[in-house]
Amino acid sequence: MTKPSTATDGWSSDISGAHGDAARSDSVRADLIGILDTVDLPIIVVGRDFTVARFNRAATAALCLTPSNIGQPPRDIRVLADLMDLEKLCAQVIADGVPCRREVRHGDGWFLLRIAPYTRRDHQIGGIVLTLTNVTAFRASIEQAIYEREYTKAILNTVIEPLVVLDADLRVQTANRAFYAMFRVSRDETQGVPLYNLKNHDWDTPRLWTLLKATLSDNNEFQTLEVEHNLPAIGRRTLLLYARRLSREGNPGHMILLAFQDISERKQAEEVLREADRRKDEFLATLAHELRGPLAPLRNMLEIMKRADAHGDLIQQARSTMDRQLGQMTRLIDDLLDVSRISRGRIELKRERVELASVVYQAVEACRPLAECHNHEVNVTLPPEPIHLHADPVRLAQVFGNLLNNGCKYTQPGGRIWLSAELARPPEVVVKVKDTGMGIPPDKLDSIFGMFTQVDRTLERSQGGLGIGLTLVERLVEMHGGSVEAFSEGEGRGSEFVVRLPVLIDKLQGQQPSEPTGNEQTATTTRRILVVDDNRDGATSLAMLLKLAGNETYTAHDGLEAVEAAERFRPDVVLLDIGLPKLNGRDAARHIRQQPWGKNMVLVALTGWGQEEDRRKSKDAGFDAHMVKPVDYAALNKLLVSLSSEQGGQLIG
């Protein structure tokens, strides 16, 4: 009789009662047990009564099984405890003879449970075999791969640029949301479809395919392929395409990542910059032309004055011509400065209660010489009742003057110009300036108020000017709370500019305008005046002009010389340039003010710098007034009269 085995594994306990078996059978069974114990995979044999019959050593180690588990239901094994339908699955496998699989979680690990039938010698199913494969690492790698795929997909879907992946045959494999949105296609419409077959074969571009094929074969990259493409809902756009070859490990085939960037706005901005640069070049050329224009007659008139001797009529004509040309140059420079100030928000309106008629007639008088020169008929029609505005009279006269000058320049000799005004609702006045001139093409109406814009710049039709007059009109009108529009029926049909301004309605309507103060008198008091300018001709000519008015003058040409001359000459008034060598004008003024003899001396800054910041710096340096070159002699004369009654007063203006 064979004694029961004392081994602690499930195989030995099952054969302990095998009496009288043949030696060969015992040997085969022992070999089978030994072989299964070498398998590094937990194996559990379950009988038809759904109890554990045996298990191998791997099951003992991995599942913590002991001989006490023999004869117990498999659900008592902890790793299988949560599988509620285990017996049902086992019964189904025994009945059908078909294996099945389930994933089972045990602690932090995962196992793949395989339930398979086994047959006896009589070919009947003797039970089932449970095998458990630890798939924890495999599941982790799968989950990591899924996470990385979804993470990458989420990133790509947040990229605003359309991206598409093509295979070696240039068929769409995948794309991001931006691609589907831009081209209004779905994944189902594009998956596996050659790019050149999408929609209406819009991408059937030989140059694109050549570059894509080169990218596949040579791993080339290209970044500068621009294409024009019609996009659904948004129209024709300019796209920049960029391609890169993608390689996959273990896969001999390559793919292409193709990116699309919509650069339409950038191209439009570049075109705007090119246009602005072109207009700037035209402006600089026009500026040079316009500034040279007055210089020729000025030089000619100077030669006439040299040679005229006693010909008083020629000298008088020369003086008139020089005065007109200097006035033209001054207006050009003033317009440039005004545009700069308005653009930087450094111009302030000096508003007061003004009557429209006085402003209009001031503008008409200013343009009268130009109108008479071209034999224009200027008609002015104003309402009989006075219209009052809260406005800057100088700037408003500049608005209407620019519009009238514009009409004169672009109306043929003998043409007509009308200026009319009427009250409208809401309380506003509508001023119209109309002419019979060359008109405005329809495509220019929207840009006519743009900086440096002129309707026709051809030499044969050039009318002069810098193309900034209408820009000033628009911006000054807007600063007054109004608006301006341009109308024209086309070339040769004349033009009309309509200005709308708010009307002043308050208790001041009944008041009468203030009487003149009498400051229009001329300066008759003899003064000692020091003129300081590093431009010797400028200093000498101004000193001569002041001397003709009965003043005693002295000149200096740098800052140090100015301080020394002021101490020696002790002038009543110092006309002092700012940009001086050796010592600038502001520092020279400070030196003079520090001296006992200079505290009550009248200092006037006479400079080409006319911004508000420049005036503030002059005041801080101790100047009593600030005037901009070229100085108008009438304005200087008026200032000198004012200083007679307000000696040392702060007159910075």
Task: Walk me through what this model shows.
It is a single chain. With 653 residues, the protein is α+β, with helices and mostly antiparallel strands. It has helices at 10-14, 23-37, 57-63, 86-96, 136-158, 177-183, 187-190, 206-218, 264-308, 312-343, 356-373, 393-409, 469-479, 536-548, 559-569, 585-594, 612-621, 633-645, and strands at 43-47, 52-55, 100-106, 109-119, 125-134, 163-166, 172-175, 222-231, 235-248, 251-262, 352-355, 377-381, 388-391, 416-424, 428-435, 483-487, 495-502, 528-532, 552-556, 573-576, 602-607, 625-628. A five-stranded antiparallel β-sheet has the order 2-1-5-4-3. A five-stranded antiparallel β-sheet has the order 7-6-10-9-8, with helices on both faces. It has a five-stranded mixed β-sheet with strand order 12-14-15-17-16, covered by helices on one side. Helix 11 runs parallel beside helix 12. The longest helix has 45 residues, at 264-308. It starts with 9 loop residues before the first helix and ends in an 8-residue tail after the last helix.
Coarse structural class: alpha+beta
How many distinct folded domains? 5
Strand order of the largest sheet: 2-1-5-4-3
Average pLDDT: 78
Sheet having the most strands: 5 strands, antiparallel
Helix content: 40-55%
Low-confidence stretches: 1-20, 457-464, 507-523, 648-653
Our count of helices gives 18
CATH topology of the largest domain: Heat Shock Protein 90
Approximate strand percentage: 15-25%
Number of strands: 22
Radius of gyration: 50 Å
